[in-house]
Design goal:
The protein is of the alpha+beta class and about 425 residues long. It contains three helices and 18 strands.
């Protein structure tokens, strides 16, 4: 009887175990269904931090990244980004998509394109970016030193390091800046950003300011700047108002200054000086031809430079403006000085026909048609001549002599 009871209890226990196991499996499938139905897929947010392909876990607890082309790229940078297989970066370095290596991870997601291709500032990467110990993660993903928190400076660039800070109240003789920095009341409305908050909060709502005759008052502050500082791509006012074209065009230049087409004013002596100072090249347009005073053995370039006459018509732009190779020089008809050899073939190619004598009969053709190495005319080999003259060098390919010609009687330059 006891054995029968034991068999019944064992069968019941086994049935309960099967039911429990089936319930757990069903519950797991139910959870996976709910996760999928509710759209709790980590790949839906910033592609799961993956640069290319994102694979979610069935239970929604994580993701796995992969690359489209596994023959040229592989997963790197913490298992999220596809990087070149043949990169030379160490495990401690960040690998850019272009193969460049960043030695410090602190420059990743710092709002600066250090890779040069935007890899280190990818929104997918920076959304899940973590900072190392001792660093603070800004709201924009940038990592800064924790000691920079609440120091009145916008180190994060989104001011998230200056939020929820407990700053002491300023004294009665002090001014409270927008970044809660305390400055001396005498420094308010003095035309300078003493608050150093980038907003010139100590220069707002100031009484009317009279600027010197040579300066202009900024649109929203009491700061005075020179007219030449307007529209020069530098924010001198602090609010960008000095770089607004509509503001610049309503302010005339100082007497004698040159007005650029972008409304910038430059010094008169910068006009037609060979350097573009306007930023759009307006100061170097319609300029008279400038002929500098050069030495006797120099060539005057159109851009006021002086170069050696030996560099004229050599097929290279030595002046920087091409004037030493232009048609006005008439390269093909230039004459050679006594210490130079005339390459007749260079005249056909409008090149400087003159080459140094030491290049004649040196075994290497320097003229376009190789006439400087013409054996029958300039460089006949004398088989009977077994030794070179005392002032000549014996080459490994045998002695070489030149008969009397328009070049020289004996090519002493060969030594």
């Amino acid at each position: 009887m006891a054995s029968k009871v034991n068999r019944l209890l064992a069968a019941r226990t086994c049935a309960i175990y099967r039911l429990t196991r089936a319930s757990i499996s069903f519950f797991f499938l139910f959870v996976v269904f709910i996760v999928s139905a509710w759209g709790l897929n980590l790949c839906d947010q910033n592609n799961g931090g993956c640069s290319e392909v994102c694979h979610p876990f069935p239970d929604g607890s994580g993701t796995v990244c992969s690359c489209f082309n596994s023959t040229t790229t592989k997963i790197g940078n913490g298992g999220t980004m596809c990087v070149p297989i043949n990169n030379n970066c160490t495990t401690e370095e960040f690998v850019c998509r272009n193969g460049r290596c960043l030695r410090s991870m602190d420059v990743v997601c710092d709002l600066d394109d250090d890779c040069g291709d935007g890899t280190d500032e990818s929104p997918r990467l920076c959304a899940n970016h973590t900072c190392r110990h001792g660093m603070f993660k800004c709201a924009n993903g940038k990592c800064i030193a924790a000691k920079w928190l609440c120091d009145h400076d916008n180190d994060c660039r989104d001011n998230s390091d200056e939020l929820n800070c407990s700053f002491p109240l300023c004294g009665p003789d002090q001014f409270t800046c927008a970044n809660f920095r305390c400055i001396d009341s005498r420094d308010v409305c003095n035309g300078r950003d003493n608050c150093r908050d980038g907003r010139f909060s100590d220069e707002v709502n100031c009484p009317p300011t009279t600027c010197p005759p040579s300066q202009i008052k900024c649109a929203t502050s009491s700061i005075c700047v020179q007219r030449r500082w307007l529209c020069d791509n530098d924010d001198d006012c602090g609010d960008g108002s000095d770089e607004v074209s509509t503001f610049c065009q309503n302010v005339t230049c100082e007497h004698g200054d040159f007005l650029c087409t972008n409304h910038r004013c430059i010094a008169p002596h910068w006009r037609c000086d060979g350097e573009p100072d306007c930023g759009d090249g307006a100061d170097e347009r319609d300029c008279p031809e400038r002929r500098p005073v050069c030495g006797v053995m120099q060539f005057p370039c159109n851009n006021s430079r002086c170069i050696s006459l030996a560099l004229v018509c050599n097929g290279e732009d030595d002046c920087g403006d091409g004037s030493d190779e232009q048609d006005r020089v008439n390269c093909s008809m230039s004459e050679c000085p006594p210490d130079m050899f005339l390459c007749q073939s260079h005249r056909q190619f409008n090149l400087n026909p003159c080459i140094p004598h030491y290049k004649v009969c040196n075994g290497m053709p320097d003229c376009q048609m190789g006439e400087d190495e013409n054996v029958s005319e300039w460089c006949p080999v004398a088989p009977s001549l077994q030794t070179c003259l005392s002032n000549m060098f014996t080459c490994s390919n045998g002695p070489v002599s030149c008969r009397t010609s328009t070049v020289t009687a004996t090519m002493t330059a060969l030594i």
